[in-house]
Amino acid sequence: MSQISLTFPDGNARDYPAGVTAAEVAESIAPSLAKRAISAALDGQHIDLGWPINNSGSIAINTMKDDGPALELIRHDFAHVMARAVQKLWPDTKVTIGPVRDYGWFYDFDRAEPFTPEDLGAIEAEMKQIIAARDPVRTEVWDRDRAIAYYKERGEPFKVELIDRIPGDEDLRMYWHGDWQDLCRGPHLQHTGQLPADAFKLTHLAGAYWLGDSTRPMLQRIYGVAFRNRDDLKAHMHMLEEAAKRDHRKLGREMDLFHMQEEAPGQIFWHANGWNIYVALQDYMRRRQRAGGYIEVNTPQVVSRKLWEDSGHWENYQDHMFIVEVDEEHAKTKTINALKPMNCPCHVQIFNVGLKSYRDLPLRMAEFGSCNRYEPSGALHGIMRVRGFTQDDAHIFCTEDQIESETIRYIDFLSSVYRDLGFEEFRVKFATRPETRAGSDEIWDKAEAALLSATRASGIEPEINPGEGAFYGPKLEFVLTDAIGRDWQCGTHQVDFVLPERLDASYIGEDGAKHRPVMLHRATLGSFERFIGILIESFAGKLPLWLAPRQVVVAAIVSDADDYVHEVVRGLQAAGIRAEADTRNEKINYKVREHSVAKVPVILAIGMKEVDNRTVSMRRLDSQGSQTLALDEATAQLAQEATPPDLR
Description:
35% of the residues lie in helices and 28% in strands. The chain is of the alpha+beta class. It folds into 4 domains: 3-63, Roll (Ubiquitin-like (UB roll)); 68-244, Threonyl-trna Synthetase, Chain A, domain 2 (Threonyl-tRNA Synthetase, Chain A, domain 2); 259-539, Bira Bifunctional Protein, Domain 2 (BirA Bifunctional Protein, domain 2), CATH 3.30.930.10; 545-647, Anticodon-binding domain (Rossmann fold). GO terms for molecular function: ATP binding; metal ion binding; threonine-tRNA ligase activity; tRNA binding.
């Protein structure tokens, strides 16, 4: 029998007979490891303990202490156990697919009767029985004809279709969890008893078209979450409760910020309160960018198809573009334009007007660019995922030698902005070349090497996000963490050698010859709409005073105080504070409750005592008591708090 060599994480290697399993390898190291083993990584590929290993390579044995592999297996096995429980309770249900997703899994079912929320409890109970049975999990490799015949005999047409979609050279793995079977790539745990019975929860139901195709059958989707232990599940469920309280759509209604309606899908109707946030944030970014050496421009919304073809967007991005056909006067054919999905090609057009010298570089060009991108209706989500949005977009035209200094400068800029907006932590991901891209491999090699080197020079070692770069260049993705620990990918920074070439951008170098500039694409907030949604949820609507849409309400306790109320409001407004009067004939407690629900940060209550003493009674959002201050002192204090951080 031939021998293979397996190398362990510590660098040591051992020889084994070809066909050895990872379980046997674990046993050869230590019986205790074999008992704790759940799977293995062979040359970076996650494999079952029972799969034969026929070639030499590197191997690592995984246990429940290995977070990534453990959670993947737990969630994958729970998907199978849930599907088994559903078919045990309702045998006529047909199964489809059940992939692992963030924090858990979902599984799609074809069933005549709709599931109800009450059914989730019954499914959970059945799942716990399956776990308690400690049924073994086993796998076999079948040929296509056998697998298709098996599923046809059992009336599972979705599985037959899935087999037809699997490339012919791939193995078909059939997994059994006890006596229940599913088609699956694996890997899986060794028996159902390895699942933590107290660390999962079925969360909700939804509809989903088969394979995401609206012309195919509508299926029923059940979502679940799972963790390694009960404490992690409890923490996650608490986070979900917090997220529900902070939902920007709910708070948007309570604070009267915006609304959306069917007549404008994916577009936002900003109300006065919401627009106050928008303008304050945009004014802040405009000041920061000017101080950072950016010029501000504005470019057209509707641009000819030809420019999008020249830039490569027509070929690589057309599915996300809104096409505009126009019957030009006396034209024999329609003119085809598109609403711009991004600003970059238009910025190159500005750069190309007139000669540019190396002395003009770096040229930092910014735009609050209104963009439109097609998103499927099912993907739209409040103001977080829309079709019409504005980016704090900028493009830096520079030389290759300036990539590093401009990248360091930008990361410092972004870090400062995020701190000002209340986000102290962020991670950086390095997104590499996608399968569909423009430019040669040589260009991509150069772009990726330049961006990675510049990022490291800034003191950051990024996480690698393979295949997620833009079609024209690699990018950094800045992922910030909100108040309840959720991650949001917002800012980006990209190195692009492709668009300047395609759109014939050039500058005159020191040698008097023409050279191509490098184009650095960057956005700090990304979409204003999405970032405002993130701010609303992170702060639970209780925005810092300078961003709050309604900063101060001056409320009369008695009608005789109305004149003084209006005087206070005028003084606050003169100091640059968004203040308003509430002189309605309502009790002060009613007013406080109403404005607190609307997340007004400060309420100044005015009664006759305050009138006589020229004071105010200041009550802050969520505080139990109030503070009496002289009017001038309160005005100065609030004016300081309402000043944007870059102006303090």
